[in-house]
Amino acid sequence: MTDILCIVGARPNFMKIAPVMKAFVAAGISAKLVHTGQHYDAAMNDQFFADLGIPHPDINLEVGSGSHAVQTAEIMRRFEPVLLAEQPAAILVVGDVNSTIACALVASKLGVAVVHVEAGLRSYDRAMPEEINRVLTDQISDLLFITEKDAAHNLAREGIDAQRVHFVGNVMIDTLHHNLAHAVPASTTLGSTADYGVLTLHRPSNVDDRDTLAGLLETVAMLAADLPIAFPLHPRTRASIERHGLQAWLEKPGIRVLPPLGYLEMLGLMKDARIVLTDSGGIQEETTALGVPCLTLRENTERPATVDEGTNTIVGTERKKILAAAEDILNGGGKAGRIPEYWDGRAAVRIAAILLQWLDGRHHAVA
Ligand code: UD1
Description:
47% of the residues lie in helices and 14% in strands. By secondary structure, the protein is of the alpha/beta class.
């Protein structure tokens, strides 16, 4: 019998599940991997499995893209028979994507325990689709593993029993530690040894609206006049740039457009960057772990440890603020930052130890 059915769906899930599955093998926990197929392009999917050495999924639901409702519903419809057939003791979901809430909801309705890795993060911005996914997933989770201490307060405020919550650290940083020595050098990716910055953009709030996107691209073009900016393009962002006819901004001097990168290429690129500008959640954490200055192009973050302790600064999307913060960093200012507690490469081992005990307790209860 399978103890735990692990779920992945989208790119940021892959680096979270890799160390967890490895720790399960070491702990003797039997696990299977279900891929919902939310992300499917080779660059968004296969490359990560190869880079991270994740086992081939046992089951792929192949849902693909769609509106939130269609994608979520389709994952639920296809996951239910899988869960009924597999009968695991629990499912384990990571992060905050549509696959996370869809599978958690199916399991909770079937009375199967839900384990949520990276629980309790809150931006307090309900316009963010991920915030809805986080709040709802946590409400129906039986075991909640948190990456930073603040998350415990968020969960307490929502009435979640503290006994279910475990502070274990950050599995994404486990993956970073494990792979740092294998990172692809930036000079290989960029074909140059000159200084550079990195930009990633994919949040609907930044890339879907024409004026917001055009404003950001113009700001980046101003920055790129002084420091070349590498810009790996998420498919959502590429589609939006084309839809709004903004391609000319990508040809401005100093802007270096790249396809979505594999994990090891992106790690190498971030590691030696002078500055990283992003709206990603994971990159805020990775830059903090690497000690690289990060400017977050959002009004809030659900990962306050990266700001309070790490190298992250929230700058929003206002041009003056972004350029001033970037100038400060490039002139040697910016934050030094320290590594948050338990971001030490051992989070997945802690999770496995707690789950082993939980499974044991369950076996005794059944016997
Ligand atoms: C999803 C997650 C987001 C995460 C991001 C990382 C949700 C609600 N959002 O956003 O939290 O930060 O992944 O990438 O789950 N597409 C492709 N190829 C693919 C996948 C998507 O071309 O392999 C295109 C499609 O046009 C699709 C669009 O990207 O409609 C958006 O994909 P989707 O999975 O809905 O959301 P993301 O923006 O990727």
